[in-house]
Amino acid sequence: MKPLMEQETANFAETILAGGDPDAPAVLFGDDTFTHGDLRELALGLGATLLEQGLKPKDRVGLFAENGPFFIAAYLGSMRRGMCVVPFQVDCSSEAFTRIVESTGLRAIFVSRRFRRQVEPWAERLGVMLFCRDPADCVWPAPRSWPPFRVDPRRDLAAIMFTSGSTGWQKGVMVTHHNLACNTRDIIDYLGLSPEDRVMAVLPLYYCYGASLLHTHLAAGGSLVLNNRFMFPAKVLDEMAEKQCTGLAGVPSTYQILLRKTDFAARRFPRLKWLQQAGGKLPNRFLREIRRAMPEVRLFVMYGQTEATARLSYLPPERLDEKLGAIGRVGRTLPHTQLEVLHGDGTPVEPGSDEPGEIVASGENITPGYWDDPEETRRFFRDGKLWTGDLARVDEDGYIFVVERARDFIKAMGNRVGPGEIEEVIADMDEVVEVAVVGVPDDVWGEAVKAYVVPTRPGALSAEGVRRHCLKRLPNYKIPHYVEFLARLPKTAHGKVAKERLKKVARTQ
C-alpha cells in the first residue's frame, strides 16, 4: 500500500478501500465475513447509486444506521465520490434531525432497514431522498467503474461529524480528507497496526473515536469485529475470544462495566495485544486493575476531540505505571500534532506548578471549525490553534494531567471544586462501578456537591459510607452533600456520561 499521504487522488476513502488484500477479512458481523474486496464492491455500488440519482461531488449525504457493513459501505462509497458524509446519531430526535438537515443542506440519506420507519417520514417532509439497503434485503447494487473523485485534500470536506451534544445543541465539525489521512497515519504508527490486527468495535462508527477504528484498521489491511450488543458485555468477550481479536477500544464506562460486571480480568485472550482507552478519564484504580490482570497487553491511554479529527495524544504504555493519569507530553506526542498548556494570556504553564492552564493543540489534524457556526469557530479555533476547553497541569517532565473541563467546575462556598478528583476517590471503593459528580444549586453553598453512584449491586453502599470514605482523603468542602444511587448513569450517544442530564434532574428534585 502507498503511504497515506502519497495517494494520487488524495481521496481518503479510496486510500482505505485500497488498504487491504482483496481476499482478506475486513469486517466480521455476526456470522458474516466481508473481505476487503467485498467491501470495495459494496462501497463502489452505493457511491454509484448517488451519481445515478443526480447527486454531485461536495453534496452532503446523510447516514442513519447502526454499526454494520451497510454503514461502512455507504460512508466510504459517498466519500469516494467526493461527497461529504453526515453521520447521524441513532438516538437522534425529529427536532435534531430537522436542524441538521436544514443547516447542512442535506440532499440524500442512507438509512438502514432498522430505522427506515422512523426516518422515512422525516426525510419525506424535508424533501430528502432516502436510500434504504442492507445485506438482509439482498439488493446491493452492482459496482460501477467510475474512478474516485479527485479532491483538494486540505479544502474538501470528507465528513461533518456532530458532537455528542452533552451541553446543548450538537455542533458539526468539518473534517477534511487531509485531516483524516494525517491522523489515521499517526494512529497506525503508534499502535503498530498491521494486516494481522483485528479490533472488537463496540463504539458507534458515527462517533469520531469509533470512526477512527474503521479508518485505521482498514487502511492497515486489518479487520473489525462489529458488535452492537454491549448491553450483554460477557457475550462481547465471548466473541472477542472466538474471533481472535488482537485489540479492544473503549471509553471509560466500557472498561468499568467489563471490570465490575464480567470476568474480564480473569479471562485470557491469546491474541490480545493492545487496549485503547479514550473519551474521558478512566479512574486510576481501573487502570491499575487492567495492568495487574493483563501485564502482557499494551494499554494505550489516549486523548482526543472531534475537533481534532480523533486523536491528539497518547501515553506510551511503557510510561503508564510511572505517569499514571497523564495523557501525553507537551510538544509533539504525535508527528502531526503539537500540544501546549497555556494561560489565558497565551503564556505557557510552568512545569511543576499547581496552577492549571488550557490544553491548546495545533497541527495537520486540527479541523477547519464548525459547520455554519462562525461564532463558535472563532471561540475555539484561534490563530490556527484549537483551544480545547480542558484544563490541565504539567509535571516537571512535561507530562500533561487533565484537571477538568472548564465548564464542569463546581463553585462551592467560594472554592473551585473539580468533580474529577472526587470521582477518582469514590471510584476507589470496591463496590463502585461508575460515579459522576455534579454541582447542584444550594442557598448556602452556592453550589453543593452531588455524587451519582452506580453500585455493583443494590444495597452494596450507603450514602453515609460514601461520605466517610471521601472524608479520609478530601477536605470538607469537597465531600458530597448528596449521594444518589442509580442502576446506570445516563450516557450520550458516544457512551460518555451525560452530566448535563444529571444536573437537569438534580435541579428539579
- Count of domain modules: 2
Distance between the termini: 58 Å
Strand order of the largest sheet: 2-1-10-9-11-12-13-14
CATH topology description of the largest domain:
Rossmann fold
Note down, in words, how this protein is organized.
The chain has helices at residues 12-17, 36-52, 69-80, 94-104, 116-126, 177-191, 208-219, 233-242, 252-261, 284-293, 374-380, 419-427, 463-471, 499-508; strands at residues 25-29, 32-35, 60-64, 84-87, 108-111, 129-131, 157-162, 172-176, 198-201, 223-226, 247-250, 274-277, 298-303, 313-315, 331-334, 337-342, 357-363, 369-370, 381-382, 385-394, 400-405, 410-412, 415-417, 432-442, 446-455, 482-485. It is of the alpha/beta class and 509 residues long. It folds into 2 domains: 10-394, ANL, N-terminal domain (Rossmann fold, 3-Layer(aba) Sandwich); 409-508, GMP Synthetase, Chain A, domain 3 (2-Layer Sandwich). An 8-stranded mixed beta sheet has the order 2-1-10-9-11-12-13-14, sandwiched between helices. β15 (331-334) and β16 form a beta hairpin. The protein is globular and about 70 Å long. Mean pLDDT is 91; it is low at 135-139.
